[in-house]
Write a structure and sequence with these properties.
The complex is a heterodimer. Chain A is an alpha+beta fold. Chain A has one domain: Signal recognition particle alu RNA binding heterodimer, srp9/1 (2-Layer Sandwich). Chain A is built from 3 helices and 4 strands, in the order E-H-E-E-E-H-H. Chain B has 2 domains: about 1-90, Signal recognition particle alu RNA binding heterodimer, srp9/1; about 95-123. In chain B, strand 3 (about 55-60) and strand 4 form a beta hairpin. The radius of gyration of chain B is 25 Å and the shape is elongated. The relative contact order of chain B is 0.15. Classes of the chains: A alpha+beta, B alpha+beta. The interface of A and B includes residues 57, 58, 67, 72 and 77 of A. Strand 2 (about 25-30) of chain A pairs antiparallel with strand 2 of chain B, so a sheet runs across the interface.
């Protein structure tokens, strides 16, 4: 069990893990409201990677990962996920710039 | 484990989030699954049949467990409803981004003015 600090590393490794063994890999989200904590886990029972956070902004990143895994798991490991993640990134970036300028 | 249709599953998931606001956790698991036993899969493989895989979603609060399956045709609708529920229920996470930004810009300003004054002194 390894907690990964960097979101981008976690994202990349979790997709890698799934593609290397799609039949065995699962993606688990655990949310604890009373402590305000969110833990994401991806494992194939040999390797296990985790990401822990208490930040609302990470919930948005999780939404993207959810969409990636829904696509991969419902359509198969060969499914194209470049648009699943890409589209939202493009949408998110100009929005951030916009807010920055106003301040 | 109760197998539900996607919509009732989402309703029950909402209830789980409501039940665990004071104590407890909710787990949601996503898995690539054919929903068939290994024996069945091996039989199908031996017979040369194509095994269909879909996305299995399980949820539990430690007391009750529910599950549903979505395929290529309905996962988009499901994932957007799921995202809406999460957004509405995950309200205990900290929203610190804005404050941090303000602090950061304040610091930047201070540093800038210091730089400017030091630059002014050198001239």
């Amino acid at each position: 069990m390894v907690y990964i600090a960097s979101w981008d590393d976690f994202l990349e490794k979790s997709v890698q893990l799934f593609r290397s063994d799609p039949e065995k890999t699962r993606y688990v989200m655990k949310y604890r409201h009373s402590d305000g904590k969110l833990v994401l886990k991806v494992t194939d029972d040999k390797e296990c990677i985790k990401f822990k956070t208490d930040q609302a902004q990470d919930a948005k990143k999780m939404e993207k990962l959810n969409n990636i895994f829904f696509t991969l798991m419902a359509r198969g490991p060969e499914a194209d996920i470049s648009e699943v993640g890409g589209k939202e990134q493009i949408e998110a970036q100009p929005a951030k710039k916009g807010r920055g300028r106003k301040q | 484990m109760v197998r539900l249709q996607p919509d009732p599953f989402l309703n029950e998931l909402t209830n789980m989030f409501e039940r665990t606001t004071e104590k407890g956790s909710v787990w949601v698991t996503l898995k690539h699954s054919s929903d068939k036993s290994k024996v069945q899969r091996n039989k199908m493989k031996a017979a040369g049949e194509k095994i269909e895989y879909r996305c299995l979603i399980r949820a539990t609060d430690g007391k009750k467990a529910i599950s549903t399956m979505v395929g290529p045709k309905d996962h988009l609708r499901f994932q957007s409803s799921y995202a809406t529920i999460l957004k509405a229920r995950m309200t205990a996470l900290k929203k610190r981004e804005r404050k941090d930004r303000r602090k950061a810009t304040d610091l930047d300003k201070k540093q800038d003015s210091k730089k400017k004054s030091s630059v002014a002194k050198t001239f």
